[in-house]
């Protein structure tokens, strides 16, 4: 849920996260096409309604929108990856300004993988990158020039293309039919050693993990410290922000109401809560309760109101703001993740449980009574004062010098008004109780039934595709792409990144909580390593983690080199003291000793300047709390302006005189 640079925000479809392909027959049922590249070197899946054009040794694919977004997939016999990528850009008639090339570990049948980033003007609003994949002596190159809004909206479809881009004739690994090993002491030690090595490599101060198998906690432990510079160690009872993992707990509360006959997943939201509104009247009429937490209504990410005005918002204003949002794709068409929609789900559930209460209070009471208390989750709370006493972790992030520092909580505090979407604090040991209940289909450890099986499992029914054999359900990701089912969800706030997961057929579950922004990169390898140890999988986790450490540092250094630091004095002198946008409120600029800080209310950060290739200028926040947040100077007709963008929205701040 944390705001990050565009490259991270669109990571769901950038090729670096691609996985190998399923047999073509698996795709045909959904209207997708299995496509072989013109040179016969690779195959991929083309989403339904997308276009493709063969041009020599390349196939150019385009989304349904006629906006100029193009992706070229090119077979080439070039001697080097750099030469292969240059050939691909010629196909598109482009020569973007090179920024960085990084290497990833071999995977998915590819012997070598190299990824390219470019210095693209922020005002271009484009996603431009490339990847070179080698099998034997031949290269397959992907070169993307995509409208930023289309990239975000259709991120799940781009993900399908790259998830299943594979060398021709390659058969991907599958764990189908394999019996999971017991996670004995030796295997658990391998997990622990791997996590500790990743923690050190990624410079994460503290990590906690837990694993259950066959109804027992087989591992619960911490690594490192709760706060840099202090000696207090992390353990299984250390509280972290669990961020968007809160959503699954929120849907569990809703399922309890469904089980009690007080709520229906298929009821219209406005019939349950008459003042509910989403966009126009026609859109509002279509929204069912289950749509609030399925990421399937086409409502895009729109978190800026929360991030900029979080200290002023209340649950009531969050619901009001939701009424101004309009889907950018049809119901059931595309996966688009929405925090305000999830917040609305929780608040409506709270009103069903405790009619007439204040929205936040009703939700808090419902969560305590229906989820936390019956599951024995005694250290899980929305009380930030309580959470940050005793055994708790502090958030951390990099400063502009790539030094890990304790991060302020200003940005994290903004989520309180949207708390059903991501504000809970919790521990590994508490979350393992939840995971075990999920594995046991609603039973508690003593055998008593906590929730009816039907209401619980309805939350796992696929609602919208996020990839091949990957679907988002009700705040749960259901992934069958490796031949076995794993259900999981992640959580991301400033300096806190987490994941909880379970393999229902194998009766195994796990949780990982981290207290630094780099902790986001521990989650995937942790899950992969568990699968390798359970199913004798190919050893991919360690080389992938090691390669990403190197690539991340190279990417960070390249990004910083684009900045002017210290910031350009003349540019700072040209800033107004105050800017305002009707939706996001004010940005106040303060100066001291030739430096400048942007204060948006919820957080404040010093800024650097970043000249853009088109001659424009960006101001970029550099403090760990919000590093990489970009404000584009857009002065016009004597009025000083700043522009802030997310994937599908643009906000113009005008000078306040």
Task: Name a few traits of the molecule.
alpha+beta; 8-stranded antiparallel sheet; disordered N terminus; single chain; 8-stranded antiparallel β-barrel; 20 helices
Tell me about this structure:
Helix 7 (245-259) packs across helix 13. With 657 residues, this protein is of the alpha+beta class. The chain has an 8-stranded antiparallel sheet with strand order 12-11-22-21-20-19-18-17, sandwiched between helices. The protein has an 8-stranded antiparallel beta barrel with strand order 23-24-25-26-27-28-29-30. The model is unreliable at 1-29 (pLDDT under 50). It has 20 helices and 30 strands.
In brief:
Helices cover 29% and strands 25% of the residues. The chain has 657 residues and is α+β, with helices and mostly antiparallel strands.
Q: What's the helix count? A: 20
Low-confidence stretches: 1-29
Order of strands in the sheet with most strands: 12-11-22-21-20-19-18-17
Helix vs. strand class:
alpha+beta
* Strand-residue proportion: 25-35%
Intertermini distance:
34 Å
Largest sheet: 8 strands, antiparallel
Overall geometry = globular
The count of β-strands is: 30
Averaged pLDDT, please? 93
* Multimeric status of the protein: single chain
Describe how the helices and strands are arranged.
Blueprint: H1 6-9, H2 25-28, E1 33-36, E2 42-46, E3 51-55, E4 58-62, E5 70-76, H3 81-92, E6 98-104, E7 112-118, E8 126-135, E9 138-147, H4 148-153, H5 155-163, E10 166-167, H6 185-201, E11 206-213, E12 216-224, E13 240-241, H7 245-259, H8 269-272, H9 281-286, H10 304-309, H11 315-322, H12 339-353, H13 359-375, H14 384-387, E14 396-398, E15 404-406, H15 410-413, E16 425-426, H16 428-439, H17 453-458, E17 464-467, E18 470-472, E19 477-479, E20 486-493, E21 496-503, E22 508-514, H18 520-535, H19 541-561, H20 569-573, E23 578-581, E24 585-592, E25 595-599, E26 604-611, E27 617-621, E28 630-633, E29 641-645, E30 650-655
Antiparallel strand pairs: 1-2, 2-10, 3-4, 4-5, 5-9, 6-7, 7-8, 8-9, 11-12, 11-22, 13-16, 14-15, 17-18, 18-19, 19-20, 20-21, 21-22, 23-24, 23-30, 24-25, 25-26, 26-27, 27-28, 28-29, 29-30
Helix pairs in contact: 6-18, 7-12, 7-13, 11-12, 12-13, 18-19
């Amino acid at each position: 849920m944390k705001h990050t640079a565009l490259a991270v925000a669109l990571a769901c479809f950038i090729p670096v996260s691609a996985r190998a392909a399923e047999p073509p027959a698996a795709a045909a049922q959904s209207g997708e096409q299995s496509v072989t590249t013109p040179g016969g070197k690779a195959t991929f899946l083309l989403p339904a309604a997308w276009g493709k054009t063969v041009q020599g040794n390349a196939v150019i694919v385009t989304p349904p929108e006629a906006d100029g977004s193009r992706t070229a997939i090119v077979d080439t016999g070039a001697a080097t990856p750099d030469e292969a990528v240059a050939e691909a850009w010629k196909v598109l008639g482009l020569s973007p300004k090179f920024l960085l090339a990084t290497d990833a570990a071999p995977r998915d049948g590819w012997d070598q993988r190299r990824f390219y980033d470019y210095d693209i003007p922020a005002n271009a609003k484009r996603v431009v990158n490339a990847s070179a994949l080698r099998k034997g002596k031949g290269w397959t190159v992907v070169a993307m020039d995509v409208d930023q809004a289309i990239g975000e909206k259709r991120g799940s479809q781009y993900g399908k293309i790259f998830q299943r881009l594979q060398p021709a004739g390659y058969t991907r690994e599958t764990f189908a039919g394999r019996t999971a090993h017991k996670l004995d002491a030796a295997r658990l030690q391998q997990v622990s050693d791997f996590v500790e090595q990743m923690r050190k490599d990624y410079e994460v101060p503290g990590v906690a993990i837990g694993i259950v198998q066959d109804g027992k906690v087989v591992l619960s432990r911490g690594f490192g410290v709760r706060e840099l510079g202090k000696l207090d160690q992390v353990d299984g009872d250390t509280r972290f922000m669990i961020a968007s993992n809160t959503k699954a707990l929120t849907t569990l509360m809703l399922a309890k109401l469904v089980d009690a006959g007080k709520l229906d997943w298929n009821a219209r939201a406005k019939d349950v809560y008459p003042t509910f509104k989403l966009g126009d009247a026609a859109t509002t009429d279509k929204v069912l309760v289950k749509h609030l937490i399925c990421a399937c209504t086409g409502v895009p990410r729109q978190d800026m109101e929360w991030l900029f005005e979080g200290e002023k918002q209340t649950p009531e204003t969050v619901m009001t703001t939701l009424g101004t949002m309009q889907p950018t794709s049809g119901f059931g068409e595309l996966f688009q993740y929405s925090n305000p929609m999830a917040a609305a789900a929780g608040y409506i559930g709270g009103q069903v449980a405790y009619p007439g209460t204040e929205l936040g209070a009703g939700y808090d009471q419902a969560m305590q009574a229906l989820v936390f208390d019956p599951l024995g989750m005694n250290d899980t709370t929305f009380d930030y004062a309580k959470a940050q006493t005793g055994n708790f972790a502090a958030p951390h992030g990099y400063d502009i010098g790539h030094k890990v520092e304790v991060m302020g909580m200003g940005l994290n505090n903004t989520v309180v008004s949207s708390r059903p979407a991501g504000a809970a604090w919790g521990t590994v040991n508490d979350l393992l109780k939840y995971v075990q209940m999920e594995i046991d289909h609603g039973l508690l450890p003593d055998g008593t039934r906590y929730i009816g099986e039907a209401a619980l499992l309805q939350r796992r029914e696929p609602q919208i595709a996020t990839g091949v054999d990957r679907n988002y359900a009700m705040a749960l990701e259901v992934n069958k792409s490796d031949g076995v089912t794993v259900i999981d969800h992640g959580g991301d706030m400033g300096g806190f990144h987490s994941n909880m997961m379970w393999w229902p057929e194998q009766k195994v579950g796990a949780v990982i909580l981290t207290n630094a922004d780099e902790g986001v990169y521990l989650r995937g390898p942790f899950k992969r390593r568990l699968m390798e140890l359970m199913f004798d999988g190919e050893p991919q986790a360690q080389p992938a983690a090691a390669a990403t450490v190197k690539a991340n540092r190279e990417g960070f250094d390249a990004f910083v080199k684009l900045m002017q630091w210290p910031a350009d004095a003349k540019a700072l002198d040209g800033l107004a003291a105050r800017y305002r946008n009707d939706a996001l409120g004010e940005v106040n600029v303060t100066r001291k000793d030739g430096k400048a800080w942007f204060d948006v209310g919820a957080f404040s950060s010093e800024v650097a300047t970043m000249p853009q290739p088109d001659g424009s200028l960006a101001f970029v926040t550099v403090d760990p709390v919000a590093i990489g947040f970009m404000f584009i100077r857009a002065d016009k007709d004597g009025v000083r302006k700043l522009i802030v963008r997310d994937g599908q929205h643009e906000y113009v701040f005008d000078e306040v005189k």
